[in-house]
């Protein structure tokens, strides 16, 4: 849950920073990229949770098929947004990095907890 919540918090923070410091195209890119990656991450979470919870275990092929369909749709949306000059590619890159930043923060948080837990 930490990663899911931190995705949205980081997206809001990145959007705010982009809004006050960058041109509108960059801000739109941050918003679009962040939404694309956050929604994809949430859908992946739901797919894996449903497919790995007994008694409804899904075939790995179905999980992979859903993953590739989302991947292709996301790629087409990104292509459309950048090719149509609706967003700035740099802003899109920053927005698409939201989940990576959330996972990095979660990892650092867990490492910190493990180090200080052992020190006590």
Cα radius of gyration in angstroms: 17 Å
**Mean pLDDT, rounded to whole units?**
91
Distance between the termini: 26 Å
Largest sheet report: none
The total domain count is: 1
Coarse shape? flat
Question: Uncertain runs with pLDDT below 50, 5 residues or more?
Answer: none
Q: Give the structural class.
A: mainly alpha
The helicity comes to: over 70%
The total of beta strands comes to: 0
* Number of helical elements: 5
From N to C, what is the helix and strand string?
Answer: HHHHH
Characterize the structure shown:
The protein has one domain (2-119). It contains 5 helices and no strands. It has helices at residues 2-21, 24-52, 60-83, 89-96, 98-119. The radius of gyration is 17 Å and the shape is flat.
Tags for this model:
120 residues, 5 helices, 0% strand, flat
Give me a quick take on this structure.
The chain is mainly alpha-helical. It has helices at residues 2-21, 24-52, 60-83, 89-96, 98-119.
């Amino acid at each position: 849950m930490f990663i899911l919540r931190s995705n949205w918090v980081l997206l809001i923070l990145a959007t705010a920073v982009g809004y006050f410091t960058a041109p509108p195209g960059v801000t739109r890119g941050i918003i679009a990229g962040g939404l694309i990656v956050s929604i994809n991450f949430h859908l992946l979470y739901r797919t894996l949770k449903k497919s790995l919870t007994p008694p409804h275990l899904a075939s790995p092929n179905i999980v992979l098929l859903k993953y590739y369909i989302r991947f292709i749709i996301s790629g087409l949306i990104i292509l459309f947004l950048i090719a149509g000059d609706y967003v700035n590619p740099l802003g899109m890159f920053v927005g698409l990095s939201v989940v990576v930043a959330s996972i990095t923060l979660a990892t650092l948080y867990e490492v910190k907890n493990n180090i200080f837990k052992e020190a006590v």
